[in-house]
């Protein structure tokens, strides 16, 4: 299942919704068509509130819903089929997929000192480069020294990069923070698990680009078609498996307590090895 399905409503609903959006769609279109300014716009709490209102659901005051979320992603020029909507949700403390409460929005934009689409897009692409594409980190600016105990100067940085530099200090830890956030974001409040379709969509954009073995695991999941849910333990150990396992599975050991689905994957990927080792678990998970 494509990630797009989890983040947007029916695209054709745009036109039906325009009459009730109080000009939000028109404002959104102008933002999307505009060019990025030569210099980032300084942060303004009032501007952050006004931006929230641009995408706010007219029927649910104080909340950006799926349609507003999709319009926001369009204005930020990020694909709903990629990982950046998840990064956006992470940075703005979302508690539901494709939704923002005003308190979450104000907290997140305030921490980042980002109150316009151009700056928010820069935040996301910086984190994409750092955590998803493994590019070298941006070095702290030295052009405008700041006094001890004060926030990073707006003149020196286009937004508050305090979290970015913390992530850059330990990229693996930061990526796992994002990864674990995504499980919490997708998990229904009354459930302990997330469904396999959602997990597979998230794995395809978060893990597969960094760890090619994830593509083989997704092929296995699709071929089997019997795995329905993902526990928090399986979610966590999937990342461990992908980050530690050699592409040819030569370092796989049945002595390690991998979830049975991953044992099944190894038996599927290496049928000869699976036949020789009677300890490989080939049971189907319900």
From TrEMBL:
The cellular component terms of Gene Ontology attached to this UniProt record, alphabetical and capped at eight, are: plasma membrane; ubiquitin ligase complex
A biological process (GO) annotation for this entry?
protein neddylation
Q: Where is this region: Disordered?
A: 24-46
**What InterPro entries does UniProt report for this protein, alphabetically?**
DCN-prot, DCN1-like_PONY, PONY_dom
Compositional bias annotation for Low complexity: 24-37
Q: Which domain of life is it from?
A: Eukaryota
List each copy of the DCUN1 domain by range: 43-270
Q: Which GO terms describe its molecular function?
A: cullin family protein binding; ubiquitin conjugating enzyme binding; ubiquitin-like protein binding
- Which PANTHER family does this UniProt record tie to the protein? DEFECTIVE IN CULLIN NEDDYLATION PROTEIN, RP42 RELATED
Known role: Neddylation of cullins play an essential role in the regulation of SCF-type complexes activity.
Instruction: Tell me what this protein is called.
Output: Defective in cullin neddylation protein
Native source organism of the sequence:
Polyporus arcularius HHB13444
